[in-house]
Each structure stands twice: as structure tokens, then as C-alpha cells.
Request: fold
Amino acid sequence: MVHVRFFAALLIASSAFSQQPNATSYSGLHWRLIGPFRAGRVTSVAGVAGDPGTFYFGTPGGGIWKTTDAGRVWKPVFDAEHVASIGAVAVAPSDGNIVYAGTGEQIAGKGVYRSNDGGQSWVSLGLKETHFISGLLIDPRNPDVVLVAANGDRRPGPNRGIYKTTDGGRTWKQVLIPDERSGAMDISFSLDNPKVVYAAFWRAGPGSFGQQSEAAKEQNGFLYKSEDEGDNWKPVGTEGCRRGRGGGWGLGRRPAMAAGGFTA
Reply:
């Protein structure tokens, strides 16, 4: 699914963290292509804590790929599941062998999958009715506690929003759905307190999902915050963010500023 994305910033931090980094400390770094040499986009990238050579990435139509040598060799690890479109990939911080995949991006997916052996095999965990999953969040201490950001089907409906499991995906609870036109685009937690979670939403206009009327293009991106790891939520103000026409929002947090957050 193609989204028009815009960039906005929300900064929640004390002035103690406002100093900019020294450009000379990273001026010698340069980007280089590490493959694989394939056409198309990458929708999600995840690394393994403590292992700088192992990464996974998901694609809109090519499944999930893995490297264990920092990109010298990439291997497809999701082909046996017959689900090509990947919206999100996440590795458990407490166990690098546990990987979750949220399917559905360019085309509809089949819910959430889990691997307990570093991508060698996968198990379907349900949420197939959400069709498009764009974010995953794994508790840093317990790999069985997971939050899912589901964008949902192309048309308005109840199968979207934030879902939570506390038993490794055997059961799911829908913990947040603002309305049937608002899809969850991303989810992130505070690095110093994982119980503090932010979720970004995008509200589509009437009719087919993503086709908005002019009246619906005023403020269609918004945020929610939870302070109990997703059980309860409240809206967060978006003063300073871009108004008017927009698209899906993403969330990120830089490690050096545990008290701050950004949206894009």
C-alpha cells in the first residue's frame, strides 16, 4: 500500500538534552550499498542486540531477508509462508532468536508471524483480518508481550488500531481504535521506561481507504500515549506539527535522549 508521507517533529525533552552533536565526529562516515541487488522498496529493518552483523529487512512484495555478516550475503527467510508483503519486522531485545513479522503493505497480508529460531521457521499468530500491519513493538524484557500497529483494510472497518498480546501471540486484545477510519501507522516506547508507549495514527477519508475528500484533508495525523504498556491510552497534542494534507506518521526515539521523542 502506498502512503504519502510527510515529515513533522514533536519534541518532548528538557533543555539539558538540546545540544546538537559535533558534526566532525561523524563527517567521515559515508553511506554505501550493501545489497541485495533487487528492485523495489524496503519497508522495515531490524537488528539483533549484541550482534552487529545480523539484520533482517522486510519488503512490500519480496518477503523477509536476513544477513549474518553485515550485508555481505543476504538470504530470503520467509518464502515458505507464501506471504510476500511485509509491513513490519522486529527482533526481541531479550532474545535475538525471536522475530516477529507483521504482514501487509503493498498488498494485503495474513496477520502476524513469529519465529523462535532466527527466521528458520515461522508460526502464524492470527490478526489476519487486519490485512495491513505497519508497526511492531516487543517488550525489552519479555518477548511474549507485543504491541501491533494495524493500519487495517483499505475501507473503513473495526479491524485496525493497536493490538496487544501477553502470551506470545496465542491471544490478542484490541486496546485502541479511535474510529473505523483511523489506522495505526507506527508505535514506539520510551527507552528509559518501556511502559510509556506512543502510537501514530492516520485517518483516511470516506470511501476507499486512502481516497480522501477535500474536507477530510485538514488534520489526519495524530498521536496517542499510554503509560501502562498499551492497556490505556490518551490523545497527545500535535502543536507544531504540519497541518493540512498529509499521510502516515512514523515514530522514532534517539537513544541519547531517553526523555525525548520524535514523529515523522
